[in-house]
């Protein structure tokens, strides 16, 4: 940019003009900078989805931490009719959860399906331990989406039982899915989640 100076130009005005030009150029330079990128630990994996069902919030927290560590999208599996405390009373044989879990053909309705499920290659499915397996709403989710050929990785929160029985049940029921070994996420650290991500090659 060329400034033509008049011999009679006031020095104060000249300095003001120069300052204005400096800030204008600085502003343009800032606007042209690329957007900041995430660190490798939090890089976005646009083909990875963490989805979960949580009745009391425990699985929700694990899913949130897992999605952050994996750089994945996060979607909750919401029942069309939310579970009440009475529904979750496992000691009551007539409670909603007891009735559902004693009828393995039960398929509790879900509020929404994931329209862009085809965009994901790797899908984590999380759930609490109910009667030593996954809640039947997980079956509803699986049967409501085309997961054939996709890599699906389960994770569970539990008061005591392991994840193995639920894995066996789902692998037997849905053999066309590419199941990977899941994990029980009762206790974990960000480091352990990062190590899992590395092992999975994500």
Explained architecture:
With about 200 residues, the protein is α/β, with parallel strands linked by helices. Strands 1, 2, 3, 4, 5 and 6 form a six-stranded parallel beta sheet that branches. Helix 4 (about 135-145) links the parallel strand 3 and strand 4 (about 150-155). The chain contains six helices and six strands. Helix 2 packs across helix 6. Residues about 1-45 have low confidence and may be disordered. It is globular.
List keywords for this structure.
globular; 202 residues; six-stranded parallel β-sheet; 6 strands; alpha/beta; single chain
Q: Separation of termini?
A: 49 Å
Low-confidence parts: 1-43
How many distinct helices?
Answer: 6
Order of helices and strands: HEHEHEHEHEEH
Strand tally, please?
Answer: 6
Radius of gyration using CA atoms only? 27 Å
Strand content: 5-15%
Main sheet characteristics: 6 strands, parallel
Portion in helices = 25-40%
Mean pLDDT: 83
* Class by alpha and beta content: alpha/beta
Short description:
35% of the residues lie in helices and 13% in strands. The chain is α/β, with parallel strands linked by helices and 202 residues long.
Topology diagram in text:
Layout: H1 11-31, E1 48-52, H2 58-70, E2 73-76, H3 96-102, E3 122-128, H4 136-143, E4 151-157, H5 164-173, E5 178-179, E6 183-184, H6 190-200
Helix pairs in contact: 2-6
């Amino acid at each position: 940019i060329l400034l033509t100076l008049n011999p009679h130009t006031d020095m104060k005005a000249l300095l003001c003009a120069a300052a204005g030009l400096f800030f204008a150029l600085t502003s343009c330079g800032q606007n042209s900078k690329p957007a900041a990128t995430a660190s490798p630990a939090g890089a976005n994996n646009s083909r990875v989805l963490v989805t979960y069902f949580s009745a009391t919030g425990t699985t929700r927290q694990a899913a949130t931490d897992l999605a952050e560590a994996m750089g994945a999208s996060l979607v909750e599996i919401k029942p069309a009719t939310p579970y009440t405390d009475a529904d979750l009373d496992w000691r009551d044989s007539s409670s909603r959860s007891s009735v559902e879990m004693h009828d393995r053909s039960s398929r509790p309705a879900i509020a929404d399906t994931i329209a862009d499920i085809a965009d994901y290659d790797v899908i984590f499915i999380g759930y609490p331990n109910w009667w030593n397996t996954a809640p039947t709403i997980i079956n509803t989710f699986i049967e409501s989406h085309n997961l054939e050929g996709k890599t699906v990785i389960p994770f569970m929160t539990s008061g005591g039982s392991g994840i193995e029985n639920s894995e066996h049940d789902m692998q037997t029921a849905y053999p066309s899915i590419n199941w990977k070994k899941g994990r029980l996420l009762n206790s974990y650290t960000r480091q352990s989640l990062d190590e899992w991500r590395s092992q999975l090659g994500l």
